Amino acid sequence: MANELIFKNASELAGLLKSGEVSSVELTQAHIDRIESVGEAVHSFLHTSPASALATAREIDQRRSSGEKLHDLAGLPIAVKDNLTTLDAPTTAGSKMLEGWIPPYDATVVKRLRDAGMPILGKTNLDEFAMGSSTEFSAYGPSKNPWDLTRIPGGSGGGSSSVVASFQAPLALGSDTGGSIRFPASVTGTVGIKPTYGAVSRYGLIALASSLDQVGPVSRSVLDSAMLQDLIAGHDPHDSTSLPESLGSMTEAALKGSVKGMRIGVIRELNGEGFQAGVKQRFNESLEMLSKAGAEIVEVSCPSFEYSIAAYYLILPAEASSNLAKFDSVRFGLRVAPEGNPTIERVMAATREAGFGPEVKRRIILGTYALSSGAFDNFYGAAQKVRTLIQRDFDAAFAKADVLVSPCAPTTAFKLGEKISDPLAMYLNDIATIPANLAGVPGISVPIGLAPEDGLPVGIQFMAPARADARLYQVGAALEQLNEAAWGKRMMEFAPDLEAK
Predict the structure, then answer these.
(1) d(Cα 47, Cα 235) in Å, to the nearest integer?
(2) What angle do CA 150, 153, 158 make, to 5 degrees?
(3) Do 213 and 310 sit in the same domain of this protein?
């Protein structure tokens, strides 16, 4: 029988640690036991660090018992997506190219976790170099959705979402380039946030598309994510895109949790054809709840969103082809020496052939072509113009609404293997999440119940203007409370018992 501690939210556990009712060693060991119990079935982790996590936990317990004032999250275990560098554990980005690589430095967000005294349980699975929507493109095998082990947990951060949804960790860090935190959150019944671009440092995040990538929290409640964002956010001189100013307290916004007088804009282009009936049903129920709670529901139009996927899948591959050029067999990572005369060109070609998977190769080829002299203006240049139009659509919509809302994903979790051979079908999962990355605005996915036709989680997405992340936590926490009242219990309490499987 699982230790009951693992089923509590991070904010509850933080309170128990602070009061001394629970020790960090006890809490960390409970999660290590859970990992040993269900970890193989879900395959959320690529690497675990039980000894290191327990050492941190013992240190925090000693410091707390001596009366030292600690961070509110001190002693609370956490998991980290495996594209964030860690000094004491491998960072593979889900690729054979970096198998076994131990970085020489911690990512800034990882350093902030350590400075706060959070035991790091391990590194979570992901689509290779964060390229994918299902975690099926990990070189080390797919993660599974804890609600149904035959289904995907989303991607690229399916490891982080499934580790939280299966109670192997109360919190996790992910990265979001086109929905890689929010889509997994939607299909696993967790909370996922993409902060404003630049609000959280990208230093130590293995780059996919530098103008789109953003680190953010994954949790089981809006307040939990707020507490984690408050810890990891803030200016970082190592990141040239880091915002110089503070965005305020997300925790205070989550505790406020009110939508009274708030204008919520329903995006016309993200609420129609192609969306599963059960997803639309739960979405409309949520809008009704928000309206009854005092929000004003208005409709807004963002016509350029229609072209967001096309623009994204030119901009991202172009930046990825440039960022991944450093994996050249010379400086670090995998090196494959072909037979015969091993010139640098042949070694590089053999290494990239063996080290990269099919989705990475597909996007590198597409991006390299889009940046070529004959195609640059027609493809990459045109995509950047569409990006500007999308940003203008956001500006116009935010003139009419405080936050924008849509279903986070068009469907619930699909079956493993169902879309892996059809890249275009896979890409369409990100139709609602991509615009926020193109514009640099923050977005949150909050669970709103189960689709009646398949009993799987549904998520709703809110987006706010750049730097207005606090609005997301305020409206997200309010809806979370309304849903708990409607369902009679928290969303995660519907999750099946993995240990019985």
Answers:
(1) 29
(2) 135
(3) no
Both tokens of residue 253? 């916004």
Whether residue 201 lies in the annotated active site? no
Q: Element (H or E) spanning 193, and its range? A: strand 191-194
Catalytic residue among 23, 44, 166, 180: 180
Domain identity same for 238 and 352: no
Laid out side by side, the sheet with 296-300 consists of 45-48, 120-124, 78-81, 172-175, 215-219, 191-194, 443-450, 457-463, 403-407, 263-267, 296-300
pLDDT in tens, 216-257: 999 999 999 999 999 999 999 999 999 999 999 999 999 999
> Cα separation of 224 and 216, whole Å?
12
Q: What is the pLDDT of residues 306-339, one digit of tens each?
A: 999 999 999 999 999 999 999 988 888 899 988 8
What CA dihedral angle connects 70, 72, 75 and 77, to 10 degrees?
-150
Same domain, 56 and 135: yes
Please indicate, yes or no, whether residues 220 and 111 belong to a single structural domain of this protein: yes
Number of domains into which the chain is organized = 2
Instruction: Look up the domain containing 115 and give its range.
Output: 4-255+441-496
Q: What are phi and psi of 292, to 5 degrees?
A: -65, -25
Catalytic residue among 11, 23, 24, 156: 156
Spatial separation of the C-alpha atoms in residues 176 and 430, rounded to whole Å = 11
| 180 annotated active-site | yes
Do 314 and 371 have their domain in common? yes
414 lies in some domain: no
308 is catalytic: no
**Secondary structure letter of residue 166 according to DSSP:** T
- Is 134 domain-assigned? yes
* Opening angle at CA 154, ends 44 and 77, nearest 5: 40
Tell me how far apart the alpha carbons of residues 296 and 101 are, in angstroms, rounded to a whole number.
51
Residues 69 and 168 in one domain: yes
CA distance linking residue 179 with residue 468, whole number of Å? 18
Q: What separation in angstroms does the CA of 29 have from each of 17, 23, 49, 56?
A: 14, 10, 12, 12
pLDDT of residue 491: 66
CB 179 within 8 A of CB 79: no
Tokens of 316: 């991202």
Instruction: Please report the pLDDT score of residue 271 as a whole number.
Output: 81
Tell me, yes or no, whether 284 lies in a domain: no
Residue ranges, the chain, pLDDT below 50: none
